[in-house]
UniProtKB/TrEMBL annotation:
It comes from Thermoactinomyces daqus. This is RNA polymerase sigma factor. Pfam families: Sigma70_r2, Sigma70_r4_2. It comes from the Bacteria. PANTHER family: RNA POLYMERASE ECF-TYPE SIGMA FACTO (PTHR43133), RNA POLYMERASE SIGMA FACTOR (PTHR43133:SF51). Residues 121-172 form the RNA polymerase sigma factor 70 region 4 type domain. GO terms for biological process: DNA-templated transcription initiation; response to stress. Belongs to the sigma-70 factor family. ECF subfamily. Residues 23-89 form the RNA polymerase sigma-70 region domain.
Length: 183
């Protein structure tokens, strides 16, 4: 372990933000590539890299030995990636369940070809929404969470949640209209 890393970590623990910037610069590629290798998505990997450095900054005083820094930082990245993978799976499962529920609801209303087309239109429309819009629709419309609960989950005020839900519904409607699913 080189002396400069030990010194950088000591400075960061003392609150030196420039030292932290140098530490980030030194490890940003390693952190990004580790996240990318696990997630196979550039945007997610960039997000995880930022989150990892933020978490590292606020947890730096928990690091007992500068010699363990690289392993400690890698563990933060690993844990954040695992959380993101679980979040993705949950979103996929909830969307699949919602589509299944819609399919069941539609199955009582008419011919099979029309039903399949509506399902396909809905699935395509959902896939074209931004992750933010898909997520907030799932939380509200599928999981049935209150505005307050959603606010706590995503960390924004209730008014912002209401606005985002409204915008997500408009986006879904617009996507469905493009598919000819709504008239």
């Amino acid at each position: 372990m080189d002396q400069s890393l030990t010194q950088l970590i000591k400075q960061v623990k003392q609150g030196d933000k420039q030292a932290f910037a140098r530490l980030v610069d030194r490890y940003k590629r390693q952190v990004f590539y580790q996240a990318y290798a696990m997630l196979k998505d550039r945007e997610d990997a960039e997000d995880i890299a930022q989150e990892a450095f933020i978490k590292a900054f606020f947890s730096m005083n928990q690091l007992e030995s500068a010699y363990a820094f690289t392993a400690w930082l890698s563990r933060i990245v690993y844990n954040l990636c695992q959380d993101r993978i679980k979040q993705r799976e949950k979103q996929r499962r909830v969307i699949r369940e919602w589509i299944h529920e819609q399919r069941d609801r539609i199955s009582h209303s008419g011919n099979q070809i029309e039903q399949k087309q509506v399902q396909l239109d809905l699935k395509r429309a959902l896939q074209r929404l931004t992750l933010e819009h898909r997520t907030i629709l799932v939380l509200r419309e599928i999981q049935g969470l209150s505005y307050r609960e959603i606010s706590e989950i995503i960390g924004v005020p209730e008014g912002t949640v209401k606005s985002r839900i409204h915008n997500a519904r408009l986006s879904l409607r617009a996507e469905l209209e493009k598919e000819g699913g709504l008239k």
